[in-house]
Amino acid sequence: MPEQTGPGAPSPERPEPRPEQATVSRSLPDGSAEVLRDDGVLVPVPSPAVGAGGWRALRPGQRVTVRRDASGRVVALLRPV
User: Fold this and answer.
1) Would you say 63 and 39 are in contact if contact means Cβ atoms under 8 Å apart?
2) Beta strand pairing status for 42-45 and 63-68?
3) 76 - beta bridge partners?
4) Contact 44, 32 (CB under 8 A)
5) Which of 9, 10, 60, 74 could be a cystine partner for 4, CB 3.0 to 4.6 Å?
6) How far is CA 73 from the centre of its chain?
7) In 10 A of CB 27, how many CB atoms?
8) In this predicted model, what pLDDT tens digit does every residue of 1-24 receive, in sequence order?
9) Which residue ranges are recorded for the region named Disordered (predicted)?
10) First and final CA of the chain: distance in angstroms?
11) How far is 77 from 81, CA to CA, in rounded Å?
12) Residue 20: which residues within 8 A CB-CB, separation 6 or more?
């Protein structure tokens, strides 16, 4: 099978980050949130990333999956895998 190239292909220098499991710490009035990863790191999640997951509301304690782009920026907060 030929190697995939082009804009959608994974970069050999920057592999696509793996999804991270987390728990919602708090949901903020501006639509953003903070989640606590399973390794204990608190991660801020911008409102567009919350919206990308289709959430109407987040509750503290709710389990989620954090998706990042190749640069490490949080781009989506999804239902847990």
Assistant:
1) no
2) unpaired
3) 67
4) yes
5) 9
6) 8
7) 19
8) 455 555 555 555 666 778 899 999
9) 1-40
10) 29
11) 11
12) 37, 38, 43, 65, 66, 68
Rounded to two decimals, what is the model's pTM?
0.77
Q: How far apart are CA 15 and CA 28, in angstroms?
A: 31
Using the CB atoms, write b or e for 28-48: b if 16+ within 10 Å.
eeeebbbbbeeeeeebebbee
- Contact between 43 and 22 under an 8 Å Cβ cutoff? The reply is yes
Task: Check residue 56 and give its pLDDT.
Answer: 87
Q: What is the helix (H) or strand (E) element at residue 48, kind and residue range?
A: helix 47-52
